[in-house]
Design goal:
Order of helices and strands: HEEEEEHEEHHHEHHEE
Largest sheet: 4 strands, antiparallel
Distance between the termini: 43 Å
Oligomer: single chain
Number of strands: 10
Helix content: 40-55%
Shape: elongated
Number of helices: 7
Low-confidence stretches: none
Structural class: alpha+beta
Mean pLDDT: 88
Strand order of the largest sheet: 2-6-4-5
Length: 205
C-alpha cells in the first residue's frame, strides 16, 4: 500500500506495519468521520489534513475539544475501541483529509509486538490531556474575547492560512456560545485592528 506516512513519528519498521494493516479513506471538508454513540471498529491516524473533535451536551450544544493533525490519532477513539465502548465524541474533517484506519484486532497486535506503538499512544494521550486542560481553563477563567482570539490564532497556526474561511455561527458552535456574542466581539477586535472581517472569512492581522 503506497501511503505517505512520513508524518508519523515512528520507526520505518512500524510505519511499514501500519501500511500493511490499515486501509485508507478520504474525507472532504465538513464531512463527518465519527458520530457520538457510534461503536469504533478501527483507530484513525491522520495521513494528511486536519480533524476537529467535538462533544455535544444534553441541549445539543457543541463544544470543541481538540484538533488532530497529520501523524496523530484520536486517543478517545483508541480507548473507546479497545474497551468496546461507544464514542463520546464526534469528529469532522476541518479540511480535505486522508485517514489510515487500523482495525482493532491489529491495534491489539501492535500493542503486544511494538513497544514504540504504546509509547506513541501515551505521547498522544499526554498531548490530548494537556489540550483538554487548556480548554477547561479557558472556559473557566478566560474572557470570551480572549477565547475567540486564541481560537482564531490556533486555527491560523494549524491551517497555515492567515485568512480563515469561517462564519460567526461556526465559531459560536465550536466555543459553545451565542452567535450574537461572537459577532459583537469580532467587531470590537476589528476596531482594534486585530482582525479583518470579510464575507464568510476572518483575517488575522
Amino acid at each position: 500500500m503506497n501511503i505517505d506516512v512520513s508524518a508519523f513519528n515512528t520507526s520505518p519498521r512500524l510505519q511499514e506495519k501500519l501500511r500493511s494493516f490499515g486501509f485508507v479513506k478520504t474525507f472532504e471538508t465538513e464531512e463527518v468521520i465519527l458520530t457520538e454513540n457510534a461503536f469504533i471498529k478501527a483507530i484513525p491516524i491522520v495521513v494528511h489534513g486536519l480533524i476537529r473533535v467535538m462533544q455535544t451536551d444534553e441541549d445539543a450544544h457543541e463544544i470543541l475539544l481538540y484538533y488532530i493533525n497529520a501523524g496523530e490519532s484520536c486517543v478517545m477513539s483508541f480507548l473507546g475501541g479497545i474497551h468496546g465502548d461507544a464514542s463520546r465524541v464526534s469528529a469532522v474533517a476541518e479540511e480535505p483529509t486522508e485517514i489510515l484506519f487500523i482495525p482493532l484486532d491489529k491495534v491489539e497486535l501492535l500493542i503486544k509486538e511494538y513497544p514504540e506503538w504504546v509509547n506513541y499512544i501515551f505521547k498522544l494521550y499526554h498531548k490530548r490531556f494537556e489540550e483538554l486542560l487548556d480548554m477547561v481553563n479557558a472556559v473557566a477563567f478566560k474572557r470570551m474575547d480572549e477565547r475567540i482570539l486564541g481560537f482564531i490564532t490556533t486555527k491560523v497556526h494549524l491551517t497555515g492560512q492567515s485568512i480563515l474561511k469561517i462564519t460567526h455561527e461556526q465559531i459560536a458552535n465550536e466555543l459553545g456560545t451565542a452567535r450574537v456574542v461572537v459577532s459583537r466581539i469580532l467587531k470590537q477586535m476589528e476596531q482594534k485592528n486585530l482582525i479583518e472581517i470579510g464575507r464568510g472569512s476572518i483575517t488575522l492581522l
